[in-house]
Amino acid sequence: MSIIVPEDAEARRAVVPVVCYPVETLPVPDLALFRAARQDAEKTDEVRVPPRDAACFNVPAGHYFRISSIEGPQVGDLNLWNAADLSERFYSGKTRALHGTHITTGERMWSSFPTLRPMATVTEDTLGWYGIDGFGGSVHDVIGTRCDPYTNALLAGGQYHHCCLSNLTRAVAAHLGVSLAEAEPHVHDVLNVFMCTGFTRDTGQYFMKASPVRPGDYIEFFAEIDLLGALSACPGGDCSSEHSSDEAACHPLLVEVFRPQDGALKAWQPPQINGYDRSHGLNGDA
Ligand SMILES: [Zn+2]
Prior knowledge:
The chain is α+β, with helices and mostly antiparallel strands.
């Protein structure tokens, strides 16, 4: 069957888009408060993520965590969970719907249904200057998933064991003391920290390009709830050419946790769980 182009095709294409989720009604994070409380915060923990591997870390609510490039340009795949209930976890798709394809200072990592609340707020981003480049690329994306051995087997064949999915699975299994089979379903779509990505204008395909990150760059977050985090140092390194292999130069990443002084966050209100009553129309007025 051939496609028939309607006479008003151009007129239909010319309809002006509207933003799906206007965010004027979203609660605004108090960045001034978070930054003031950060001034005298003390470092309480640090975790070094080895290349082509992952590590877990805990961040109590009201603390900060910083992810830094330390030895060379490197992309990280970040998962977050509510430390007390792993069913509440980062929701990449809704974060994208609310904030766009990439996140930066003042934007948040939102949790899954039914809680749908901020898990972490970006308070600092040394790559905030990058913006959107001429290819439509930007940094810290919520459009990719995480590199994984299943897609690699589908497209290239073979068994590769250091994709971010596998790295995160091993780290979660070791942290929780559970089997790989039990750990794997906890791994979810990530925030691609430092990764520079977009969609090609002509074919709409997901692209990556060499990350602009350099040693010393970091992204820092305020933990809105008690968090378990897992970060993978992607086998793609700076993701300039490929992932899902040992070809790329790959570097460690550093995670540091900071605790503010007592009372510094007195004015902070922890996020409530989402207000929807979950009746789905059956128990109350239809
Ligand atoms: Zn990866």
